[in-house]
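Data availability (excerpt). All sequences and predicted token strings are deposited with the supplementary files. A representative entry, Cytochrome bc1 complex cytochrome b subunit, is shown inline so that the format can be inspected without opening the archive.
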Amino acid sequence: MSHATTNGAKAATAKRANPLGGLLTWADDRTGLAAVSKKQIRKVFPDHWSFMLGEIALWSFVVLLLTGTFLTLWFKPSMAEVVYDGSYDQLRGLHMSEAYASTLDISFDIRGGLLMRQMHHWSAMLFIAAMFVHMMRVFFTGAFRKPRELNYLIGLLLLLLGVIEGFAGYSLPDDLLSGTGLRIADGLVKATPVLGTYMSFFMFGGEFPGDVIIPRLYIVHVLLIPGILLALIGLHMLLLVYQKHTQWPGPGRTNNNVVGYPMLPVYAAKAGGFFFIVFGVTALMGGLLSINPVWRYGPYNPAEVTAGSQPDWYMGFAEGLLRIMPGWETHIFGFTISWNVMLPGQIIPVMFLAAMLAYPFIEAWITGDKREHHLLQRPRNAPTRTAFLVSLMTAYGMLWMAGGNDLLAVIFNLNLNYITYFMRVMVFVAPVVAFIVTRRWCISLQRQDEARLLHGYETGVIMRSPEGAYAEKHLPISGDEAYTLTARDRDPLLPAPTAADENGVAARHVRLHRLRARLSRAWFAHNVQKPTTTELEEARHHAEHELAVRDDGHQHVSGDYTGDYELDGHAADGHQFDGRHGVSGEELRQH
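Structure token line:
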């Protein structure tokens, strides 16, 4: 017979409620956030190094906000003239604006000021560079396809605003180099037909440089654009969570799931650690690598310009466009249209931006693909798109080099005019060559994937047939790799439209549909499609027949086409194909 026992000597008493828990319960009863948060904190994110590019941009923006807040405490956004009497001897006694004087004070007289200035500048560079590379990854992998067109547009706007924000911040110190950049901006504005001079007058508060442009740029830099950036980043992240993250194809990954780690605790811990890595690298660069040493340039004077002046790297393409543009002008009704400024400074950048914004919709129209896509494409499986972006990158590189034509002439002792003429030609020729080479390269890689699927991987074993011919033996790839290589759709070619349907009713927009069919053929005609099921089965039977080599009638092949082949428990290394050697203790080179 058993008796109930207890280890407690005293009666149980209720513990005092946790005040924080009570507060959270009170808030949850009125907001219902617990149910929503419970779902979101367990949301799964895929794990791949390329997804960190967007995180670098995000954490760089956080560093920008932190360092920018520090700088605003001492920077004076005023163009009022003062006499400098700070610590930097070479400029002491010179007349300059309060903006430039306060920048010198931050650099030399405020504890940690120069570190904060350089961290701020480096993080701005990193922010824009990370956005560039992140958008390239999105473009190469087709991550902009339905339903992510809106997020793609937001990303491009973030990149554009980041460039404008960088230019505004770059101009605030009012040094000779940044003043030269403002003079170029003034020229771009004045190139606008009829309205240009009025726009410049209102922008600068009078004749250039005026006395209000620095305070206005300051408000734009610290308030207007950062607010828009914060709103767009928040919307970008909300759409990312709502639509779920894209992922690379692989075993177990489909358009209907996400394979990865939950937001809490794994992903949040990794993201938090990555922030400190970005912050640490930025601090290291700010402490060891000098950038934008404004004290070397001196205060801005409209009558002077620095020799070999160069803008920040992200403005290099605009500088190159201006430098290689011929001096074309047109005089109409007493007005001068400066094509040499308006084309490279206004029309071409706007056309480029419009083309990039419209690209997802143009590709969807050409391909007729209206489905949702959550699996990324390997760049080789979209040869035309990949080649198109590489051609744009090539044009960007050519313009970047053209923006430094004077430095190239001095460093390599070349003729400046010859460099300019060469760049005028190569900016059109090089992108076309890059497009053709990249497209053929991608198609060659598709053929390589097809060969791995049908014939297996190269073992490095060279065999000689009885007839004396030499051939390399192949073994089938693993099932995981085969799944990854076949996890893509076949590219459909749109048929050419007919003038009338089977009932004799005339078709509408025949010319437009005919153009679409031609573009579809140009887009996909040369692509190598993944093998069909029949082709894979034939290749499997062929591989089994080739590998079924018996030694004295005892050894045999086990496994299937997508698995590992063994001979009596030993890894097949190819030597058994000669019919004379055993395989005991030998291993094949891993693929």
